């Protein structure tokens, strides 16, 4: 048989396969035995073009809250997927929900049709057009597997701004999860627990301490997407990020419950599927949950139990319509400049009161880490909001902190003052092409307007800023080379946001209420 005949024969076979009725095509098969996969395969069934799914009810007896599986044999098919609406927190939370699918587990799309039938107690979803691959992955929402956390940590480990915390080894590992056997009888191996610090090591002055925690609940994947995006911003060449690295130390614990995530659990840990790990931040026993104990003790050691901001990233299906923060209003945390700035960048964010009675991560941040601001941030699974939305959200978290902790414009040596030392830097680099420098390095040489050069426009900007703070006469003396008085004006907002205990540092406007 010649090549042209062979090609013609294969094309004919493909066309025949496409034209076959669904009943004669290859049977669709389901699988959820992979990282963060979740499905009751024994309770699921394929009946012609209908794929009847059964959710796992670990932690929530009789209810499911996460599903993620692959379906093989779907090329050129348009199967209908159906699952009961026995959803934890109530089937009504599925009313506006949309399931997602992917051909590579990286790029995700929302199903065209998603509907709940409250009378029949079902949730049905399908596409208008056929699948273009023989295998498709389907999930309740955007997955974030343990492997992604491991890969992301490895990818940033070589950054000059990343280093192990005091509790971590050179691979940024603070310990290992216990592993165990999940509710399906599968062996879940021990996983590395990571902790790392982000900062500019060249900046040795006073810095705020910020703790970022993620992955406490197994099914709350969007919190990890948001945290990852924030970390990427903190390590970027963005001017705000670069200045922020000089003003703060970030302590990041990206995946506190990797066993539960790996097993595809609804919420809990593998060693105790019926216990909520976000009610176990209670040292010294931590409700007998080893991974929570390891992360909790690491946070205490790494920060000397003295931090300014504690942010725990979660996800939820409740308290819509948008993303929100659980914040203790009685303590005035909702007035913290970081949160108010974030709400300016993200106007749809809502605030819900947190009483900090249960042993949550946020309570741990307040009472064990002595945080000046603590919150649980909840991202919601919203139809149409894909990964780019959470990249923007995480980036805005970083920008809000950058704006909160930034030094004044014109402070070229980042000491909190716009003074003669900054004038000397500006003058020394006058009329210099800085286009080859990073935004931070160019700014530090006097490129205040970020146009790639230290030029007359930067002189005008500096002059206006200096005069606004110190007066026209002071600027004239500065240009004439007359030394400044020792009482050069400190722009106090830089330190307004720092809570300092046991550190002999000026607190111009006092502490936030606790």
UniProtKB/TrEMBL annotation:
It comes from Botrimarina hoheduenensis. Keywords: Carboxypeptidase, Hydrolase, Membrane, Protease, Transmembrane, Transmembrane helix. One of its GO terms (biological process) is polysaccharide catabolic process. Belongs to the peptidase M14 family. It comes from the Bacteria. PROSITE patterns: PEPTIDASE_M14. Its cofactor is Zn(2+). The chain crosses the membrane at residues 473-498. SUPFAM superfamilies: Type I dockerin domain, Zn-dependent exopeptidases. The keyword Transmembrane helix applies. One of its GO terms (molecular function) is metallocarboxypeptidase activity. The active site is at residue 378. This is Zinc carboxypeptidase. PANTHER family: CYTOSOLIC CARBOXYPEPTIDASE, CYTOSOLIC CARBOXYPEPTIDASE 1. Residues 150-405 form the Peptidase M14 domain. The keyword Transmembrane helix applies.
């Amino acid at each position: 048989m010649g090549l042209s005949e062979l090609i013609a024969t294969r094309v004919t076979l493909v066309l025949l396969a496409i034209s076959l009725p669904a009943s004669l095509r290859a049977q669709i098969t389901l699988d959820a035995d992979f990282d963060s996969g979740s499905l009751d395969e024994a309770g699921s069934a394929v009946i012609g073009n209908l794929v009847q799914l059964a959710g796992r009810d670990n932690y929530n007896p009789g209810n499911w809250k996460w599903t993620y599986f692959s379906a093989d044999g779907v090329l050129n098919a348009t199967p209908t997927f159906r699952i009961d609406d026995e959803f934890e927190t109530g089937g009504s939370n599925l009313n506006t929900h949309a399931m997602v699918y992917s051909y590579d587990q990286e790029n995700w799309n929302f199903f065209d049709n998603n509907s709940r039938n409250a009378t029949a107690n079902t949730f049905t979803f399908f596409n208008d057009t056929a699948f273009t691959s023989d295998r498709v992955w389907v999930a309740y929402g955007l997955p974030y597997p343990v492997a992604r956390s491991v890969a992301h940590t490895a990818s940033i480990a070589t950054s000059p701004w990343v280093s192990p915390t005091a509790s971590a080894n050179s691979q940024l590992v603070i310990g290992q999860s216990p592993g165990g056997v999940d509710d399906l009888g599968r062996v879940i191996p021990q996983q590395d627990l990571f902790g790392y610090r982000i900062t500019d090591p060249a900046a040795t002055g006073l810095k705020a301490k910020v703790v970022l925690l993620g992955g406490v609940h197994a099914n709350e994947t969007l919190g990890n997407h948001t945290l990852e995006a924030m970390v990427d911003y903190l390590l970027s060449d963005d001017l705000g990020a670069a200045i922020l690295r000089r003003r703060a130390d970030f302590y990041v614990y990206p995946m506190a419950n990797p066993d539960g995530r790996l097993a595809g659990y609804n919420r809990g840990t593998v060693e105790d599927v019926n216990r909520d790990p976000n009610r176990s931040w209670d040292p010294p026993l931590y409700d007998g949950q080893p991974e929570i104990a390891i992360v909790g003790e690491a946070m205490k050691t790494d920060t000397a139990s003295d931090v300014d901001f504690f942010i725990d990233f979660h996800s939820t299906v409740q308290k819509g319509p948008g993303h929100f923060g659980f914040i203790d209003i009685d303590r005035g945390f909702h007035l913290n400049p970081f949160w108010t700035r974030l709400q300016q960048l993200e106007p749809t964010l809502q605030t819900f009161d947190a009483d900090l009675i249960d042993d949550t991560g946020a309570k741990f941040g307040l009472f064990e880490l002595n945080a000046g601001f603590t919150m649980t941030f909840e991202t919601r699974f919203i139809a149409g909001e894909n990964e780019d939305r959470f990249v923007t959200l995480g980036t805005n978290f970083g920008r809000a902190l950058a704006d909160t902790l930034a030094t004044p414009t014109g402070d070229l040596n980042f000491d909190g003052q716009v003074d003669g030392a900054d004038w000397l830097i500006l003058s020394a680099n006058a009329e210099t092409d800085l286009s080859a420098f990073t935004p931070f390095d160019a700014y530090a040489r006097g490129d205040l307007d970020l146009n790639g050069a230290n030029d007359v426009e930067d002189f005008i900007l500096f002059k206006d800023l200096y005069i606004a703070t110190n007066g026209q006469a002071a600027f004239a003396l500065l240009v004439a080379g007359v030394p400044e008085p020792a009482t050069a004006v400190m722009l106090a907002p830089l330190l307004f946001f720092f809570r300092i205990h046991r550190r002999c540092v000026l607190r111009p406007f006092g502490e936030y209420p606790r």
